[in-house]
Each structure stands twice: as structure tokens, then as C-alpha cells.
Design a protein that fits this description.
Elements (H helix, E strand, L loop, with lengths): L3 H19 L5 H21 L3 H19 L3 H18 L3 H17 L4 H22 L2 H23 L3 E6 L1 H8 L5 E5 L12 E6 L5 E12 L2 H6 L11 H8 L5 H7 L1 E8 L1
């Protein structure tokens, strides 16, 4: 017989598929779609178990995930935080409800984060709280789901942010020589798709366009700004191999247009020679 408990556990099994899939994507939109579907199933599972607080706040999180696909407007962030707190107060029934509400508050911060890395960190903490909650109310499938979710998240975080990668960039003779001589420690580029993959501690192979000579570099920091002016204003001109900010801006305009700058943003790649 399909009891409410059994149905709830089956729903968690389906949600698990979406949760596991979510952290194998790097695209933020795909991650959030998976979260929304999984959260809807998890919410129904809690209602079937009579856990109205968890069911309510997770249902709100499903709506929140859908909304945050289209916007990270901070006004909506505070709206959802308020709704979760209100739902928690209205339906409060025990100490375990504090855990579910806290987890959904953290999850809300993650959903409205424009940065994938921050999203993952918040979700790992939220998952830990929900594992504790699910142990207290005894939902075996729920415990397994959150545990797999946490493990998948940890694996993806390691793959994308901790595991050292190697990249390659080509440079003209002058900037190549300045870096080799230690007179330039930050290379400037548009924050395009390739540059978005760069992380501190990654290896970078610099190739001279003229003679194909190479330098092996470690990336020590990645500085992201909306404009080149903001980037140059935040660092001494010497680190870019220049003498003044005006000269740097004039030179960079030979390579990158204002339109491209506004579209992609800019990045300063801080380098350390091996």
C-alpha cells in the first residue's frame, strides 16, 4: 500500500536525481532550474510527513529559485527572507523547525548570489543543517538526499575552484618581456568566457607571439572590475608595466572598445613567475 510516508520517500528519490544533476552543471540557470524542481518535490514530501514548517519554507524556496533565474534584485531577496521567517513563525512546532528555517534562509542568500562560488558555499551549509533536521524528524530518504547533495556539491566545488588547472595565453613581445623581467605583475584582459575560467593558484602558460618562447606562471589573484579605469585606479600603474593611469587607459583602448568593456567587464590577472 502506498502510505503517505512511502510516497514521501519516493518523491525524495526523484528529487535526488535533480539534485545530483544540478552540481554537474556550471551554468547558473541550469543549476537553479534543477534546484526549483527538487525543492518542489521535497516540499511535498515534508507536507506528507506532517512537517508544515519545512514544507512551507521549502515551497517558498522553490518559488525563489525560479525568480532568481531572472533576477538577483536585492529587494526580492529581502522579500523572500521575510516570507520564510513569517512562515517559520506561523507554523513553528519544535526545535527542528529552527534548522529548516535557517537552512532556507541561507539557501535564499545563495539563490540571489550572482557568483556561482558563493552559491555553492551557502548551499553546503544549508545542506548540513537539513541533514540534522531530517535525522530529527526521521525521513531516511531525506537524510540520503541531503547527504548526496552535500557530497555532490563538495565534489563540484573541488573540481571548479580547488583543483589546479592550466591555461594558455598569447602575448606580444613587449608585455611578455615586462613579465619575464618582473616589471609587470598584472596582465589586463576583458572578462570573457576564457578569463572567467581563471582561478587563483591555477597555472598559466604565456606564449610570445613573435618567437613562441614561453613563461610558466602561477595566478595569485584575479581582480574583476566593470571598467579598465576602475581597475587602474585600484592599483599602482607600475604593476601593469606602465608609468601613469592615463597612459595605461590610452594603450588599452588600442585593443578593446568601450562597448566590449561595458558588455564583459574587465579582469586583472595577478601573476607570479616560477
Amino acid at each position: 500500500m502506498f502510505t503517505p510516508f512511502l510516497i514521501s520517500q519516493i518523491l525524495i528519490g526523484i528529487a535526488l536525481v535533480f539534485d545530483l544533476a544540478s552540481f554537474q552543471f556550471k551554468n547558473r540557470k541550469r543549476i537553479l532550474i534543477c534546484f526549483a524542481v527538487a525543492a518542489s518535490l521535497i516540499s511535498t514530501h515534508f507536507f506528507l510527513l506532517g512537517e508544515n514548517t519545512a514544507g512551507s519554507v521549502v515551497a517558498l524556496s522553490a518559488v525563489r529559485f525560479v525568480v532568481s533565474i531572472f533576477t538577483t534584485d536585492k529587494r526580492l531577496l529581502w522579500l523572500f527572507l521575510g516570507l520564510i521567517l513569517a512562515a517559520g513563525v506561523i507554523t513553528f512546532d519544535g526545535v527542528e523547525d529552527v534548522l529548516s528555517v535557517s537552512a532556507m534562509l541561507l539557501s535564499t542568500f545563495s539563490a540571489f548570489s550572482a557568483q556561482d562560488k558563493r552559491l555553492r558555499l551557502f548551499m553546503m551549509v544549508a545542506s548540513t543543517l537539513m541533514i540534522t533536521h531530517n535525522i530529527l524528524i526521521f525521513t531516511p530518504a531525506g537524510i540520503v538526499l541531503e547527504s548526496f547533495f552535500l557530497a555532490s556539491n563538495l565534489f563540484a566545488y573541488y573540481r571548479y575552484y580547488l583543483k589546479q588547472k592550466q591555461h594558455q595565453m598569447h602575448l606580444d613581445q613587449k608585455p611578455f618581456s615586462l613579465i619575464r623581467e618582473g616589471k609587470k605583475t598584472i596582465e589586463v584582459r576583458l572578462n570573457d568566457e576564457k578569463r572567467q575560467e581563471l582561478r587563483p593558484n591555477d597555472l598559466l602558460l604565456l606564449v610570445n607571439r613573435e618567437d613562441e618562447s614561453q613563461l610558466r606562471i602561477t595566478i595569485t589573484a584575479v581582480h574583476k572590475y566593470q571598467t579598465f579605469k576602475e581597475l587602474f585606479d585600484s592599483h599602482a600603474p607600475e604593476v601593469f608595466g606602465g608609468t601613469c593611469k592615463e597612459e595605461l587607459l590610452s594603450n588599452i583602448r588600442q585593443f578593446y572598445s568601450v562597448a566590449d568593456e561595458q558588455k564583459l567587464g574587465v579582469v586583472g590577472i595577478e601573476l607570479k613567475l616560477h
